[in-house]
Amino acid sequence: MDGRLLLDHHTRDPHTRDPHTRDPQTRDRHSALAEETALGALLRCWLREVACPRGHVRAAGPHLTLRVAGTPVRVRVHGGIALRFDGPPEHLVEGRWRPLGLSSLVALVERELDGGNEEFAAQVRAGRDAVAAILASRAGAAPPADPWLASEQALVAGHPFHPAPKARSGDDWLDYAPEAHARFAPRLLGVRADLVTEEGDTAALDAFGDAPDGYVPLPAHPWQLGLLAAELRGPFADGRLVDLGPGTRAVVPTSSVRTVFDPGTGMCLKFSLDVRITNCVRKNAWYELCGAVELTRRLTPVFERLARRFPGTRWLPEPGYRSAALGTRLLEGLGVIVRGGPWAVCGPGTTPVLAGALAAGADGVPEAVRARRAADPVAWWRAYVERVAFPVLDAFFRHGVVLEPHVQNVLVGFDADGWPVEAVFRDLEGTKLVAGRHDLTGVPGEVAAPLSYDAARGWNRVAYCLFVNHLAEVAATVAATTAGTADGVLRALWAVARESLERYVADHAAGLDALAPLTRVLAGAPLPAKANLGVRWARAADRTAGYVPVPNPLRVDRVAEGEHR
């Protein structure tokens, strides 16, 4: 037994290669694609959050023309509110349209927003460089044979409406990057038994190895141990913790980076990770550890009822957590939440696929799904909307539960013919209870408060995640990958979505109170879109992020060509 913290034994995926060793032409292609990806993300943010609300966008032939710091910028757009770009954006320089580069766009954004954020440009560049490094590592790595894990590791570009979706800190992040097809062995710690803090079912953690007498095993993310090295020296020196070395088996990181799948138990582990990914430092706050178990207890009967009403509805409970009582910093930093795995809840013959992969395109999407989606897009889409949207809406209106159904929190189960037959909801961190609808007596106030949203805030979250982040992105991809006119297909898809939502109201929501928010959406009210550029520019916590209105593609008179205006 060695009480020292051994930080140099990373288990690097043998397929991962140094991105700087590849040939120059390949590096140039990766750099160009990374530049295009980063430029598109920042420009989409600007269009949605600044140019459109300020009325600085107009149609000019096949282009949208907008102004950034007084400079005209034009780009071809399709996909409705998803804002997919056809061809490179251009800006007007000395009377001529010239290609717009990322550095030029960043400088224009900074000028119009009057500076004030010296971190912003570096974050955008870091996101671009991360995509280039991911592409290089990915080129030399084999994707997982498991189709669900392949979809989890397919999100190379990341959030399409975030100014720096792939920015990562540190030198060894590729060792743990799902997009680079990483896998690694967690380190196993021993926590002195009198210092263990845990709740619920934590048996999945014991499967990673035995601890010496008087200690309890605790798997840890190697990246996190490096980040906590200074704080861990004391507990390792005095024996409150012991380092038992690398675990005996590898885990596979999923799309969130810090949550991994353990093939040995079929369970997922949600580690803390003191790294900013999009807007949040991804650590498990102490109240989230307790809250996950509390929500699992409360949501078990809710999902049982949802599954009876909407067959095919599934979820991944979070039945337990374990950490070490070594002060708040280490309690949170070493905390691990146990989560169910999708293969255990999906029916026989059903393959779970991450919705984010379905939104992004073809990578990580099984061939049967792509073929069915292309062959019968309208019927496929109808089934998709009903599997995903109906339980989300019913959870909110009937049960007072705010799910967070964005594309990284939903897995869609497909049968052998590629039809959507199940929807699996996960990640209780963003799941909330509508205030006044649930009795939280007996739950400590510090835990209860973060579990609740008022109804208006809850609806904004549901509407953004479901309609803007999820359905709009998947619809844009379905339209773009279907034979025929993409705009015409997109109009047909939104018409079908509207019919399905009206059927939900007629068949399932009749008599329910407080349906007004959905009624307003069906009447064409603007939808709320999260303002990621605004919160990143302000260097604010993600929980403070506001929303900007975007056109509602469900409006009866909405045409696809005008959805983004």
Task: Provide a compact summary of the structure.
With 565 residues, this protein is an alpha+beta fold. Helices cover 39% and strands 20% of the residues. The strands form seven sheets. It has a six-stranded antiparallel β-sheet. Strands 1-2-3-4-5 form a five-stranded antiparallel β-sheet.
Describe the fold and architecture.
- It is a single chain.
- The chain is of the alpha+beta class and 565 residues long.
- The chain folds into 3 domains: 19-146, TATA-Binding Protein (2-Layer Sandwich); 182-345, no CATH class; 347-522, Transferase(Phosphotransferase), domain 1.
- Helix content is 39%, strand content 20%.
- It is built from 18 helices and 25 strands.
- The strands form 7 sheets. A 6-stranded antiparallel sheet has the order 7-16-17-12-11-10. A 5-stranded antiparallel sheet has the order 1-2-3-4-5.
- Strand 11 and strand 12 (267-271) form a beta hairpin.
- Helix 13 runs parallel beside helix 16 and helix 15 (455-480) runs antiparallel to helix 16.
- Residues 1-21 and 559-565 have low confidence and may be disordered.
Low-confidence segments, given as residue ranges, are: 1-21, 559-565
Residues in β-strands, percent: 15-25%
CATH class of the largest domain: Mainly Alpha
Q: How can the largest sheet be summarized?
A: 6 strands, antiparallel
Distance between the termini: 64 Å
Q: Would you report the number of β strands?
A: 25
CATH topology of the largest domain: Transferase(Phosphotransferase), domain 1
What is the CA-atom radius of gyration, in angstroms? 24 Å
Helix percentage range: 25-40%
Q: Order of strands across the widest beta sheet?
A: 7-16-17-12-11-10
Whole-number count of domains: 3
Structural class: alpha+beta
So what's the overall shape?
globular
Mean pLDDT: 92
For the record, the CATH architecture of the largest domain stands as Orthogonal Bundle
Q: What's the number of helices?
A: 18
